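Reading a protein record of the kind used here takes only a little practice. To see the layout at work, look at the sequence and tokens printed below.
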Amino acid sequence: MVFWGEGRLLRKNLFPSHPCSLTLSLPPPLTFSLDSLQVVCMSHMPGRAFMLDLYAVLKDRLTCEPTLSYADFSRLLWSLSRVDCTPPRSWLREFIEVSTPKLAHLRPRALSELIWALACWDAKPSARFLDEYFRASRRRLSDYPPAQVVDTLSALAKLGCRAPAPWLGDMLTSFCASLSEARAHELVSLLESVVAVADDRQWLAAPPQRAALQLLADTAASRFDAFDACSHARLVLALARANCCPGAAWLSEQQASLASAWSAEGGRTGGGMPAGIDTATAAGLREAYSQWEVELEPVLAAELEGRV
């Protein structure tokens, strides 16, 4: 644990000049927590040269003995994923290898922070890492809050990774068990990510998964008043990709809500497209509604006709 006084000392020793001209002058190892140094860096907007030097020091601390504790490693992940400076590819390869044996000891938050950091860096992990990651996280899925389920699946989708069906099924179950805690945007992100990472389309079409997807869609319907036009579009397109029709009543309610959001947002932008909606998205919406053989709500039909 690093206290405020230690953080102040770090700033004095490491950042004697204006923060825009940071240079690296690290004290000897083990005199402070490197993850806390990283948090200090976040508030001072260090340059890339500083960060590259810091990554070199972190590499030594991750591989030498005694290495960082699991708690320090977890805090390090949190801060690294929030600094806008991608490490060198050689560093990332070694970081993934060093991280693999730690996976079984990390808590759910650290596991989700780790895969999220890799996604931020566009660093697709090795098959060995993923196998161990799925094993380690599956043992702790009952402890995952909805936000960490969504972060994990979104990161895997961003990395282009596929998830084994048993693991993904347990993730869905964990999320559905805490639906009352899930926020509207998390429902949309989860549906998108599940469809993106599922490695078995037959499994996705099976009754248990269909029931879970319908439950997510119904829960989303209860929160339509919190959805903007972009969220509505993402929700419909995710269900269409999953080949899951949510039902006529659901679609009628959803179209009315989308039309209202579209008109309100379009009005604010002088009649233009709502934020996050482009011509391809509008075409995808029309195709989805056509696939489900539902009649378009008049206001929405007029908007979509003019965008495609």
Remarks:
- The two ends are 56 Å apart (CA to CA).
- Confidence is low (pLDDT under 50) at residues 1-32.
- Residues 235-308 form one domain.
- The chain is about 65% helix and 0% strand.
